[in-house]
Amino acid sequence: MRIGILTSGGDCPGLNAVIRAVVHRATMHYGDEVIGLRDGWRGLIDGEHRKLDLHAVNGIIGRGGTILGSSRVRPELLRDGVRHVLDVAADLGLDAVVPVGGEGTLKAAWLLSEAGLPLVGVPKTIDNDISGTDVTFGFDTAVQVAVEALDRLASTADSHQRVIVVEVMGRHTGWIALHAGMATGADAVVVPERPFDVERLTRWVNRRFAAGKRFAVVVAAEGAKPRPGTMPFETGGRDEYGHERFAGVARQLAVELEGRLGKECRPVILGHVQRGGTPTAHDRVLATRFGRHAVDAVHGGRFGEMTALRGTRIRLLPLARAVERLKTVPRSRYEEAECVL
Amino acid sequence: MRIGILTSGGDCPGLNAVIRAVVHRATMHYGDEVIGLRDGWRGLIDGEHRKLDLHAVNGIIGRGGTILGSSRVRPELLRDGVRHVLDVAADLGLDAVVPVGGEGTLKAAWLLSEAGLPLVGVPKTIDNDISGTDVTFGFDTAVQVAVEALDRLASTADSHQRVIVVEVMGRHTGWIALHAGMATGADAVVVPERPFDVERLTRWVNRRFAAGKRFAVVVAAEGAKPRPGTMPFETGGRDEYGHERFAGVARQLAVELEGRLGKECRPVILGHVQRGGTPTAHDRVLATRFGRHAVDAVHGGRFGEMTALRGTRIRLLPLARAVERLKTVPRSRYEEAECVL
Amino acid sequence: MRIGILTSGGDCPGLNAVIRAVVHRATMHYGDEVIGLRDGWRGLIDGEHRKLDLHAVNGIIGRGGTILGSSRVRPELLRDGVRHVLDVAADLGLDAVVPVGGEGTLKAAWLLSEAGLPLVGVPKTIDNDISGTDVTFGFDTAVQVAVEALDRLASTADSHQRVIVVEVMGRHTGWIALHAGMATGADAVVVPERPFDVERLTRWVNRRFAAGKRFAVVVAAEGAKPRPGTMPFETGGRDEYGHERFAGVARQLAVELEGRLGKECRPVILGHVQRGGTPTAHDRVLATRFGRHAVDAVHGGRFGEMTALRGTRIRLLPLARAVERLKTVPRSRYEEAECVL
Amino acid sequence: MRIGILTSGGDCPGLNAVIRAVVHRATMHYGDEVIGLRDGWRGLIDGEHRKLDLHAVNGIIGRGGTILGSSRVRPELLRDGVRHVLDVAADLGLDAVVPVGGEGTLKAAWLLSEAGLPLVGVPKTIDNDISGTDVTFGFDTAVQVAVEALDRLASTADSHQRVIVVEVMGRHTGWIALHAGMATGADAVVVPERPFDVERLTRWVNRRFAAGKRFAVVVAAEGAKPRPGTMPFETGGRDEYGHERFAGVARQLAVELEGRLGKECRPVILGHVQRGGTPTAHDRVLATRFGRHAVDAVHGGRFGEMTALRGTRIRLLPLARAVERLKTVPRSRYEEAECVL
Known about the structure:
The structure is a homotetramer.
Chain A: E1 2-7, H1 15-29, E2 33-37, H2 41-46, E3 49-52, H3 75-80, H4 82-91, E4 96-101, H5 103-114, E5 120-123, H6 139-160, E6 163-168, H7 175-184, E7 188-190, H8 198-210, E8 216-221, H9 249-261, E9 265-269, H10 281-299, E10 305-310, E11 313-318, H11 319-323, H12 331-337
Parallel strand pairs in A: 1-2, 1-4, 4-5, 5-10, 6-8, 6-9, 7-8
Antiparallel strand pairs in A: 2-3, 10-11
């Protein structure tokens, strides 16, 4: 067979491990040919590609980024160009395509699959917001990077008697904030799923100071918002792709808390370091397993499905189910964590 | 309630996170008193203990080791002293005990539970060999440490055209070897579950050199053994606790491979760095969840059970089931990895 | 003797290592008593202190922050309160004081020394801007943290064809930017010592793209400014202590470059992670040596001096000399680096 | 000009950064051509080489190993083949050679320089044992790796009441042991420069336990030896290159101490992880500066010299001086550290 692979959307540690696993499994076990499509869907629109053999994926398992490049494509472009994409795939002689990407990519994949492109998806998101899989690669690395930063910041906060508000990634879901907060014993975590009450947050932090502590750490997911009317809050609007823009919740919250607490409050925005660089061992193993099983799924004719982790096993599930709704943090996990407002 | 907690057996990153979570949940949610028992079961034999309040567990979530200390106790000592332990627990006024430990500890816990000690176990092992839970805290850290070392070693092996045989922990199971090998793209992995064929290993490595590579990496679990008769091999015998001693498989295998390959082969033994120090974010979260749910289980009267991860949820399961057999690497996982001999 | 020690100013990895070394040397070698003054100069104004014995400094060598706390004190407060400080020192029975701090602290120390307080300084700054010493502890850690972040960011930039502008610490000097830029092969570095020409910067980055590269990394010291008139630029003004406020050079530069290059430019502000947390081995050794030599200097009566590294040796030099001017990056180092605009 | 570069001897983090800096400086500033010689001196004996342009060194600054490969060559081979090497250099049209290597390499370089080969050396050693330079790249990384391992091991030793004897690199000098020991507050350090007294070591460790500590850490350089007659000790003999073999001092010392102390003592051998993998920021900057200055030295006709760090500056000094004796740890540094036996 001739299998095309592409990586699409934002960066995510583990992409290269998927590519490597796909090439290893396909070429060594099945004797397939693997074609790397350049810069995500763009490669399938423009036909830009290169052959991937064992040599091409040598030593990449632990490297950040993606050797295939990635780009954002406006959803309309794919929607209106389905016919064109099918033609390009045919011209390239592709028997199957393995797109590796997040929610947007998987939606596009589902659309193309419905239109007849033989395709097996691999979910990718540092945000852990894709339904149907226990977790995706990239998330563990993002949390680990955030935790290392939080550990560093906590020692300063402690010595210098400060409140720090640390903004981590998560526009629509609070998974990274929840895990990073739990792993560092943060005093409070605010998430997009639950508009926060700044009154209550202030009480929590004050109670801590009353108990003799000299500092506090608040972890805020990028997309967290206060309950309307409880504090002044500017949203960031939307960008050209229709995505919500960065609203600067940490900065706004730090100003508000400083006023309410009468203590020095500092915002810290961790930003893109969370989504790049060397993946953790956990993410490398998961990405490798996803890659291998995607190739097996191609050979099993399981088109229109994607790989997923369930417990300790890799399963396949219909793309339609994965994209029907975002996987948000459920109430049971908030309550378990206790630090979520 | 008055809850005793103890940590027993070898070191494991995440122990302090469990202790912290138990104290937080018990004191803040239930208003319990928590008693830390010193040096594992010894604390319950000698009655050595101290009160644990929020202050005592401040800042420990990310620290290696255990603030309670640990020690190895010969199994007979507990078996013959069940009556005594029950008396000590009664003298200390304990309503429940939460032992955190590996297979040996959980077996002892089960024995004591059968004898009437109200007890909820928390599994702990870097080896990932406890049945009934998808994974235990400590394992992710051990694999991560091994992977960081393997990444360092691979760059040297590549520049200096060597075969390195890296010995990782795992006397009875090959989980660490499997994951560390998968995460670094090792050329071969040998595990205790499957005696290896040194002929075949030699062929694998040679094939690699034939394909133009200049180095090779073999990952060996401590307890891996060659198929009888295929190469000279000295076992390490047993120690005073009846545990198998370290046989030095990497050293023996490196000598054998050097002879067969005619290339420089170097053994590296990673050793105890894998079982100590700061836990990964993954292990901190899991340990925290285990600690919290153990306290809830105590209040739910779920004695004789232990916490376990199943998919994304924490469940309880009977200790008897957890200790009935070691969780070894199943055939399906070997085959998936392809690098296991 | 009875020696007081205090840590003052912003956080800096290695402070605890200095404290530990002072306590070890003073108590074990000289039989001195060491008094820890709370929250920097405030401890010497309010008299808040505690005794530091070996037990108090156990296990702190690798921890971030400072067990003594720190605070910022307005310079006037010390200047006008010299008499009072001398009285407090006398009341506490201090034979000598060892202040550990940056430029502001050392200036205050010099003032107090002139007024008769027996005092030996230990320089501390992540910015490496203190004259008379080759380097100070904290700097190596700050650069290492910045480099780890830059490594992560570069892999994303490469895969996603972006220009990233990474802002590192350094309000008055470009040492961190220079070293972090050199260590990661950054395409351009802008520093406070040399107002940058945005035209030239654009040319450099464009040349890179012309050579077939798909991304570029610009490192900007916090205090870097464009040459007047070359691009719109808002400064951040000054805070209540008279320090320059954060102007957001990365953000402003990214906007400008995006316009000029027609490529996606992203600002990333590393912020306070650079000044907290576990010190590198290098900084722990240097801090330990400074601590020890400060105690020896006290016993040698070398008051009014401070510790300094010269080559491989620790020397003492007059505080007056250390504070006479900030150590900026010399022209020879720019030229050597070649990446500095 | 046409400049040849080679990397020789054991692995050392920073080699790729030197290669990159040589290529950048030579090609971009001087318009030179750079030739990479394969596998150290072997490339100059066999003539195996490849052209190095900017593209070839792209992204290597932070990678471990050496893209040129390395190998050990028996000294006689070079000594007897000087004529041949000069011929190969002439055939390749080399105007100068930049060998990057340790003591052995620099000795060979000096020999060849005396014989007329135009050559500028770059010192390389993780052991920090080359005279005339404050430090060499690779050393900081080796110490950092050892310190991270020691931090992990200490938490286990503390929880489990053990004495650990950690063996770090250093066959002839104790620099790594000294710095790693100082940076982690080790209880005792033994080094090759000073045969240790096991009686005294036992007293030190016992004193510690008497003071209420529950564990102890001893750092041993590979080449440390007991004073003759104080304990049984087997040396490792010599290998085919005449180098001393690994004697296993940690293992032998742990057995001896266990007998003397009546406590569990565990040896841990860190091994080759110390000499491979990603260099620290410090080593990348130093390696980059050495590479650049080596090219400037070539253009300045400073043949027969090598780059060196003195204070904050890069200097050149005659190879003859660098190789006349090994730089051992001086008495003043032992005494300063206080933990060295």
